[in-house]
């Protein structure tokens, strides 16, 4: 049984036994003047209560926008199939930088299934780095979900 089948199977039959699955992107502009500050948090969740998409976003002095919606299994399965094809479950867990650069935001994508998590970090300028295309594709996919 492949990793994809193992992850998607709870979507196909609830009798398989649910495992909580959570994908989370956290991104911030870092320590800048309040009028230029931005924060973004995106979550895709599968729980025993259902499937959810959550997005929290703030930019500058605008009021923060928050959206949490319950999505159906087909929508969730479509998102997961795309993310699994991008390899979200295959990246290695990274440690937070030992010597972070002052004034630079370190953003993250975290994949959690059951009690196991994998996380990778990125800086905003990494989104332009072609050597990080695999991870950047995951980041851009998550950001496009509305």
Briefly characterize the structure.
With 146 residues, this protein is α+β, with helices and mostly antiparallel strands.
List its traits:
single chain, 146 residues, alpha+beta, 6-stranded antiparallel sheet, 3 helices, 24% helix, disordered N terminus
Structure, described:
This protein has 146 residues and is an alpha+beta fold. Helix content is 24%, strand content 34%. A 6-stranded antiparallel sheet has the order 4-3-2-1-5-6. It is globular. The model is unreliable at 1-17 (pLDDT under 50).
Layout of helices and strands:
Blueprint: H1 3-12, E1 21-28, E2 38-47, E3 50-59, E4 65-71, H2 73-85, E5 107-113, E6 116-122, H3 133-144
Helix pairs in contact: 1-2
Going across the biggest sheet, name each strand in turn. Answer: 4-3-2-1-5-6
Amino- and carboxy-terminal Cα gap: 32 Å
Whole-number mean pLDDT = 82
Tertiary shape:
globular
Provide the low-confidence segments as ranges.
1-17
- Total strand segments: 6
In percent, how helical is the residue content?
A: 10-25%
Structural class from helices and strands?
A: alpha+beta
User: Roughly what fraction of the amino acids lie in strands?
Assistant: 25-35%
Rg: 16 Å
Q: What's the SSE pattern?
A: HEEEEHEEH
Tally the helices: 3
For the sheet with most strands, the description reads: 6 strands, antiparallel
């Amino acid at each position: 049984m492949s990793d994809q089948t193992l992850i998607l199977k709870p979507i196909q039959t609830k009798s398989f036994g649910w495992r909580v699955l959570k994908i989370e992107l956290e991104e911030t502009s870092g320590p800048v003047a309040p009028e230029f500050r931005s924060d973004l948090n995106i979550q895709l969740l599968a729980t025993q209560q259902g499937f959810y998409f959550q997005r929290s976003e703030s930019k500058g002095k605008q009021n923060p926008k928050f959206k949490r919606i319950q999505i159906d299994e087909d929508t969730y399965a479509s998102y997961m199939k795309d993310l699994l094809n991008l390899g979200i479950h295959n990246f290695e867990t990274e440690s937070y930088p030992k010597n972070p650069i002052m004034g630079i935001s370190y953003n993250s994508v975290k994949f959690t299934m059951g009690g196991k998590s994998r996380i990778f970090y990125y800086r905003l300028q990494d989104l332009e780095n072609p050597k990080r295309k695999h991870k950047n594709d995951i980041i851009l996919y998550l950001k496009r979900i509305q």
